[in-house]
Amino acid sequence: MSLVKRENSKFWYVQFQIDHRTIIRSTRTTDRKAAEQVAVKIRAEVHAEIILGKKEQITLETALRRFANTKTGTANYRNLVSQMRIILAAIDCSVLLVKVTSETLEQFRQARLSQGCGPQTIKHGLNFLMGAIRLARKDGFDCQQVEPPSVRIGNSRVRYLNVEEERRLLRELDPSRETNGLSPEPERRADRQKWMQDNFDLVLMLIDTGARYSEIANIRWKDIDLETGTIRLWRSKVQNESVIFMTDRVVSILQRRLSERDGETVFTNKAGDARGYSAIAIRKAFRRAGLHDCTIHTLRHTHATRLVQNGLTIQEVKSVLGHTDIRTTMRYAHLEQATVTRKARDIFNALNRSIVIGG
């Protein structure tokens, strides 16, 4: 066993052979005496792993962070970090990875179901968990073979809100509403009233812009131009930027919020930072409105559906939503077809009225 220096590092490296393999590991220290002590430990660990079959132990949290770090710099990295935070909050991730079983994944599924999450949302979380476990196994860490629970995702058409359903949802979010368990508006704490107003405004903006939750929840005032009525929207998921023209009610919301501005972002948390992911109150409003099959993403579907139903082409809707792949937008194609066939019917009705039968 020997200690060596490498050209691209300031640390000492230990180099040795075991079971016909050459092992080179960093001691992570520049002190030679300390490096000698670390080298003895490294050799013992490698011997246990290779000769005795003992694998290194890590926690589930470490496995999750390792997996997220492999995606650093990718278009989806921020979403993966957000997904990791959700998992950390949903289940105990301090346990050793070797103790994670299929039952652990089922606990995660149940936790997300109880929060009102839809099948696709839960599937994303399970995919993250499985990706972290597979990477850890590939890298030689100790873990069990696990199978994710089945999550059925129906082939039903896109769920969107009709006008009456939107009214019901907005009534359940109305910051001036009075209901059992809720103090009358004049008696409410200021922070409670602000939070109710935030949820109401956020949902309206999601419907009228068609943006993803994170794109509006974390939007900064510097990206708002009330003079031109535009929003410069950075889409982190697909790494592109769109310019959105505001509807009248979005303009009204932002004018009011600007007069009450208390941070760099339009929506803030209690610390005054960007709101981040906090959607439990909105999910509860869906349930109170009887919209049990709806999620926050339904608001984006609602925006896209109304555009198609009122004459925009699939290609135009693709631009509005900021999709990078037309195949994603094609889920609305059947609506465009319905619009076209309706026009065809109107054309023939007009022609038929001019045809005199038996004349």
Characterise the protein shown here.
The chain has 359 residues and is mainly α. The protein has three domains: 2-50; 60-138; 163-298, hpI Integrase, Chain A. The chain is built from 14 helices and six strands. The strands form two sheets. It has a three-stranded antiparallel beta sheet with strand order 1-2-3, covered by helices on one side. It has a three-stranded antiparallel beta sheet with strand order 4-5-6, with no helix packed on it. A hairpin with a 6-residue loop joins strand 1 and strand 2. Helix 2 packs antiparallel against helix 3, helix 4 (102-114) runs antiparallel to helix 5 and helix 6 (163-173) packs across helix 10. The longest helix has 21 residues, at 333-353. It is elongated and about 100 Å long. The model has no long low-confidence stretch (mean pLDDT 88).
Number of domains: 3
Rg over CA atoms, rounded to whole Å, is 28 Å
Indicate the structural class. Answer: mainly alpha
Percentage of residues in strands: 5-15%
CATH class of the largest domain: Mainly Alpha
Tally the helices: 14
Fourth CATH level, the homologous superfamily of the largest domain: Intergrase catalytic core
Shape: elongated
